[in-house]
Amino acid sequence: MVVVLTLITLIAGVLLGYVQKVTHDPIEKAQKAKQEDAVKQVVPEFDNAPIAEQYTVEANGLVLKLFPATKDGERVGTAVETVSKKGFGGEISIMVGFNADGSIRNYQVLSHNETPGLGSKMGEWFKTDKGAQSVLGKNPGVDNLTVKKDGGDVDAITAATISSRAFLDAIANAYAAYTNNTDAITGATTQKGKEENHE
To answer: CB neighbours of 19 closer than 8 A, spacing ≥ 6?
Structure first.
């Protein structure tokens, strides 16, 4: 009995190791391709290799990846892979692209666990030129990119204030890393009173 169980355990261990080895490279390549695509979507046209030139910056207690975009040797923008742990469903991850002047060029939601049909709308909501929804073209160092319920200038996603705060918190974290100055912005988009914000 002991010999049989030992053999089964050994075989299972070998098989798991083999599967991990076989799938590691394809998964890594897929993740890199997704990252490269996200960078291309959010920064101006560039002629360097932002993925190869990435670096990290600590901001608001987070270590974030920055991807510099240059053309003809001049910095045209920077993509920041940012997160917020304040989502309704937990952590959200976003790639934010800043122009050279610090304004937001574009963003792409990389992952989240927000409520389908509510918080999940963040992928397009904050790009839509309707009311005060869009953050594109705004500069977090100048504009008050918090939800209106908190005294800011941005329309929250309908019935998803917590998700909206988390999205804008991720933007704040990205800007803090981009400027390398956590005193400039401190992730002020905190969750207030969950009892008044339901998804």
So the answer is: none
State the 10-residue block means of pLDDT for the chain, 199 residues long.
83 81 71 86 94 92 94 94 94 95 95 91 95 96 95 95 96 94 35 38
Quick one: pLDDT at residue 33? Answer: 78
Give the per-residue pLDDT at 12.
Answer: 86
In this prediction, residue 2 carries a pLDDT of 79
Burial class (CB in 10 A: 0-12, 13-18, 19+), 191: middle
User: How far apart (Å, rounded) are the C-alpha atoms in residues 182 and 59?
Assistant: 6
Torsions phi, psi for 52 (to 5 deg) = -70, -25
Give the residues across from 83 on adjacent strands.
93
Tokens linked to 181? 């100055």
Q: Is there a contact between 179 and 197 (Cβ–Cβ < 8 Å)?
A: no
Q: 92 has which bridge partners?
A: 84
Burial class (CB in 10 A: 0-12, 13-18, 19+), 11: exposed
Q: N- to C-terminal Cα distance for the chain?
A: 53
How many angstroms separate the CA atoms of 157 and 166, rounded?
11
